[in-house]
Amino acid sequence: MIVGEQKTIAEIKEIIAPYSRVLVLGCGTCVKTCFAGGEDEVATLTSALRLAYNKDAKQISLEEFTVERQCEDEFIQEASAAISRNDAVLSLACGAGVQAIAKRFYKVPVLPGVNTTFIGMLEKHGLFTEECLGCGDCKLAVFGGICPIARCSKKLLNGPCGGSQNGTCEVDPETECAWQIIIERLTSLKQLDNLKKYIAPKDWRSSNAGGPRKLVREDHII
Amino acid sequence: MNNGSYSRLQQVLSKGDFAVTAECGPPRGTDAGIIQKKCSLLKDCVDAVNVTDNQTAIVRMSSIAACVHLLQNGIEPVMQMVTRDRNRIALQSDIMGAFSLGITNILCLTGDHQSFGSQPDALNVFDIDSMNLIHALRDMRDSGTDMSGYKLSEPPKMFIGAAANPFADPFEYRVLRLAKKIDAGVDFIQTQCVYNTKRFWEWIKMARDEGLAEKVHIIAGVTPLKSAAMAKYMAGKVAGMDVPDEIIKRMEGVPKKKAAEEGIKICLETISFLREISDVHGVHIMAIEWEEKVQEIVEAAGLLPRPQLT
Ligand code: SF4
Ligand code: SF4
Asked: Which end of chain A is more exposed for a tag (fewer CB within 10 A), N or C?
C-alpha cells in the first residue's frame, strides 16, 4: 500500500489560512489503513482544527467528507457537491489522490494534508516499512524476495557496503541492513550462488528516471 | 590482475616490493597551499597517495583537482571516486578527464552515505555501485569502450583499485564480495584499518583458501591512534570499523601525554604483523590530519628508502 503521514496541525493551519470554507476530504483506501486520511482521521483532524481556531478566535468553516478512493474519478464524483460548497479542498489522500482532485476540479485549490512517504507494509501494529520503489523492473527473484533498491540505503545490487554491522545499516542503527537479510534468506533458500553473479548496472529507464510513467492496458480500453 | 605498467604503484607492486601508500584529504576550500604542505610531508616516503572524494560526505575540493596538485608536487595520486554523487555519465567523463591530466590510479568506492556529512539534506545518486564502476573502468581500459560500448579514442589506462572491509558483516560474505571485485577487474585492494589482527588474518586465510589472494594485490590499511578518545570514537562511531577492547585498554593505560607515542607503537606492531603475511603486498597509512607522522612511521618500520623506478 501507499503509506503516508498526516501533516502537523501547524502546517495544515498555515496552508489553509487563505481560505474561509474548507472541505477536509478523506480517502478510504491506503491512507485509511495507515491512519493518515480515512474517515476517522478526517473527523479527528477537523475537531482538532476547530478547537485550534476557537482558541485563536478565528472563523473558518470546515466540512468533512470521505470517498472510497480518491485516485479514481468514479469515486471522486461523489464529492463534487461538497467541493462546490467550499473555496478549497484539504485532501488527506496520497499525492495521487490530491492530483486526481486537481485534475477533475481545475478551478478549486487543492491542498495536501498528508505527506505521502512510500510503498510499504504494516510490519507490526504501529510500524510501517518501505518495501518497494516502483522501479518498473522487479528483480526480487534474484534477491530472495528482499528489495535492495528500496531497502539498502545505497541501492547496492552487488552486495553489502563496508558499513554493515551486526545486521544494521550504517545509516541508522534502527534500520536493518537489507543485505544482511538478503544473504540470510538466500542462505536458507540455498540460493547464495545468486550473489556470485555480477549484476550489471541497472537500466533505470523503467523507473521514474525515464520520466513520468504510463501504463496502457489495451484490453481494458473501452 | 593486469600486469601492464600504468603507474608507479603498479610497478612497485609487480616487482614484488612492499608498497606504501598514504592518504591526503583535500581542503574544505580552495587553498592549494594546504595540499602542497601535505605533499612536502609525504614526498619520498610513500609510493602513492590516495586523494579522498568528499570523504564522509563532507564537501571538499574535488578529488581530481587535488590529484593534479599532487602531480605538480611530484607525488603519484590514487584518485578515489565514489558513486554517491555522480551518475554513470559523470563518472565516465571524469575518469577520461582525470586520465588526460595524468592520473593513473583509481580507487572505486560507493562512498559514505550523505547522512553522515555536512549536507545531509542532499539527494544521493547511486546510479551504479562500486562493482559496476570497476567493471566499467576495466572495459574502458582493456576493450577501449565506454559503458555504452562506444569505442573511445585513447581510452583511459588506469591501475584499478577497490576497497575491502574484512571487519564488516556478514563476515562470510566478505570473501565472496572480494571474489566479485576481482572478477569485475580490480588490480589492487586497500582494506579498512586493521586493529583486529585476528579477524584480518581469518579474512586473508579465507581469501587464500579461495585462491583469491594471488589474483590481486592486497594493501592493508592502518591508522595510528592519537588518543584513547580517538580509539573509542572509532570503535563506536565510525561505520565498519573494528577496534578491539584490548587496543582501547592499551591506549587508556598510558598517560595522556604518551598516548600518541603508544598509538604509533601499535601501528608499527601492526605493520610488522602485516609484513609477515605473504599475501599482503603493501600498507596504506591513513594518518588523518597527522601527515607529519607518516615519514616517522615508514622510517621506523624499515620501509625507507622507497624503491627508485627507472
Ligand atoms: S525491484 Fe523494483 S519493483 Fe521490485 S520491489 Fe524493488 S523497487 Fe519494487
Ligand atoms: S549497511 Fe547494508 S543497507 Fe545500509 S547501505 Fe550498507 S549494504 Fe545497504
From this structure: C
d(CA B172, CA A189): 16
Q: Cβ of A163 and B112 within 8 Å?
A: yes
Q: Assess whether A57 and A149 both reside in one domain.
A: no
Q: Are residues A163 and A68 in the same domain?
A: no
CATH number of A42's domain = 3.40.50
Neighbours of B109 (CB within 10 A): 23
pLDDT in tens, B61-120: 999 999 999 999 999 999 999 999 999 999 999 999 999 999 999 999 999 999 989 999
Please count the structural domains in chain A: 2
A61 lies in the same domain as A144 = no
| Cis amide prior to B77 (ω within 30 degrees) | no
Pairwise CA distance, residues B170 & B179, whole Å: 15
Q: Which of A152, A175, A181, A185 to mutate to test the pocket of ligand 2 (most atoms within 8 A of CB)?
A: A152
In angstroms, the CA A5 to CA A13 distance is 16
Looking at all shown ligands, the one closest to residue A134's CA atom is 1
Instruction: Give the H or E element holding residue B130.
Output: helix B130-138
Can you give the residue range of the structural domain that contains A165?
134-206
What are the pLDDT digits (tens) for A95-149? 999 999 999 999 999 999 999 999 999 999 999 999 999 999 999 999 999 999 9
Same domain assignment for residues A173 and A106: no
Other beta carbons within 10 Å of A38: 19
Q: Are A6 and A114 in the same domain?
A: yes
Whether the complex's predicted ipTM surpasses the cut of 0.95: no
- Alpha-carbon gap, residue A147 to A140, rounded angstroms: 6
* Angle, helix B259-275 to helix B245-252, in steps of 10 degrees: 140
